[in-house]
Amino acid sequence: MRNLVFTVTATAVALLASMASAQTDITVAIQLEPPNLDPTGGAAQAIDSVLYSNVFEGLTRFEGDGAVVPGLAKSWDISNDGTVYTFNLNSGVLFHDGTSMDAEDVKFSLDRARSEESTNAQKGLFSGITDVAVMNSTTVKVTLDQPNGSFLFNMAWGDAVIVAPESIDDIASNPIGTGAFAFSDWVQGDRLELVRNDSYWGTAAVLESATFRFISDPTAAFAAVMAEDVDVFVGFPAPENLPQFEADGRFQVLVGNTEGETILSTNNKMPPFDNLLVRKAVAHAIDRQAIIDGAMFGYGTPIGTHFAPHNPDYVDLIGNSSYDPAKAKALLVEAGFPEGFSTTLKLPPPSYARRGGEIIASQLRQVGITAEISNLEWSQWIEEVFKAKDFGLSIVSHTAMDIGIYANPEYYFQYDNADFPGADDRT
Known about the structure:
Helices cover about 25% and strands about 25% of the residues. The protein has helices at about 15-20, 45-50, 105-115, 150-155, 220-225, 240-245, 275-285, 290-295, 325-335, 350-365, 380-385; strands spanning about 5-10, 10-15, 25-30, 60, 70, 75-80, 85-90, 130-135, 140-145, 180-185, 190-195, 210-215, 230-235, 250-255, 260-265, 300, 340-345, 370-375, 395-400.
């Protein structure tokens, strides 16, 4: 398998004038709109970007630095052999519809996620669970088939949030959770609105409301910030505008690392990408730094692996697929494609994909590969690429520590190698 990887530096633009004064609401702009509002049944990170820890909560949760801390479970006990976790739930927790959250809801959520009929995109998170038992209304015992040091980490994922059977049928359009904010309205194609949950079991939110606006077009993003229509833009899609913002006293530009690894993924079961020599040819045809410079104005790092440089497990593998067009052409000849071939390059809305896709198509053309670009909306990308696996090449960022995807033949990469077993579907 030869997926080409680089990290895109995270950027956020904050409007200082608005944020300096006390306010009761906030408007946050992000690039991607969720395809639906069910974090337990959808693969899109955009769902968690809006709803995670705001509307929905899990037994545990992630802190900003990645630490796992108590969530709906205030504490837990682990058996000596590491296979039984007894969770002690916070009492008095209510769902936004006024119903109580208790151990039965935890059992329902975990059993639903691990069932054969489950559509949970991260079903592998729950694969080791053999039993979920309700001890009393605030105590749940979860039994694993073997010790798993990542179990508490797994329970903090957005895919493991606790939901209720009473509201599950409408969760994709009317999410009801236990978080500090409740869902209010979703104007598809424009914005999603949350309001403060005044019955929240934990520390009450300071803000009365929060609006998430979905703006993927770089020109529209620039206009929205300059017009002060948004308070914060997370993951600003037009890095060429950052110097202008930095020179404007109204704004603060924050630049930092991200867990996102941007991948030019190949469909390993679709000819000719089922041929290792072809995948190697593609890898050597791509100049990662040129993509970063051209699409992201230098905000990014070539990595050649699935971990960001700040991750303790990071290994610099960029040398394994160095930019070498002559070698790429020779590999295509060896693979039986002396004249090259044509394929599809399906791109989701973010600017790193759309802009990067144009550069990659040009680089591939130089070695004889014609990549026909299809610009898809996010929901289309989920259906065509992620679910239907109808693509040759695609570009997307992975924002979780999901290295297990490479060993999962059912994942949209469809990489299936008997010498590389142990697959799970954690993404």
